[in-house]
Specification:
The complex is a heterodimer of chains A (113) and B (114).
Chain A (H helix, E strand, L loop, with lengths): L2 E3 L4 E5 L4 E3 L2 E3 L4 E8 L5 E7 L5 E3 L5 E5 L4 E6 L8 E9 L6 E2 L3 E6 L1
Parallel strand pairs in A: 2-12
Antiparallel strand pairs in A: 1-4, 3-9, 5-6, 5-10, 7-8, 8-9, 10-11, 10-12
Chain B lengths: L4 E3 L2 E4 L5 E6 L6 E7 L6 E7 L2 E4 L8 E4 L6 E5 L8 E8 L8 E2 L3 E5 L1
Parallel strand pairs in B: 2-11
Antiparallel strand pairs in B: 1-3, 3-8, 4-5, 4-9, 5-6, 7-8, 9-10, 9-11
The chains are: A mainly beta (113), B mainly beta (114).
Chain lengths: 113, 114
Amino acid sequence: AQSVTQLDSQVPVFEEAPVELRCNYSSSVSVYLFWYVQYPNQGLQLLLKYLSGSTLVKGINGFEAEFNKSQTSFHLRKPSVHISDTAEYFCAVTLSGNTPLVFGKGTRLSVIA
Amino acid sequence: EAGVVQSPRYKIIEKKQPVAFWCNPISGHNTLYWYRQNLGQGPELLIRYENEEAVDDSQLPKDRFSAERLKGVDSTLKIQPAELGDSAVYLCASSPGGGSEKLFFGSGTQLSVL
């Protein structure tokens, strides 16, 4: 079965600094990969997804992620964060086809003014 | 277009009481999911519906949890009786097809069992 590991439970970063949130997955077959954001007291919102094609995926709010098959990673990056990026970020994986998402435990990004 | 609607937004009950959550998916979305999100954790699938059929309920604790999706649109998730460990956020999501590539989440119901 597939699984996701988010290596950092909390990431504090100063405003306008770059950030990387790490995600590694485990699967013996091809996968689809996702990053979701959850603002306080809200549901999950899709940031970006990798299904196939270019390994560099651009999403909303200036975020991007790179799929690295050899390292089984899908790290999320943003070159300059804002206070409004403070939220919980979840990496998720699903097998190609009709299977549900499996989520990581999340990384809490705190942007400091 | 309206998103996935869930109610109530918050629910506080005493243990051993019953509780129900309601979800209205995006119009035209055949697939509906119920996830549970414990504090500090990622969401975990409880049950998945394709129209009115539960196609994956392997993670649903069937001794106290039940769900239904009559007519393949709205869905209700019930817990009876609730236990302290059931305190969590219950998320509903829907997608237009069977895959998870286009998943939309509701805001969730935050359950507190005292």
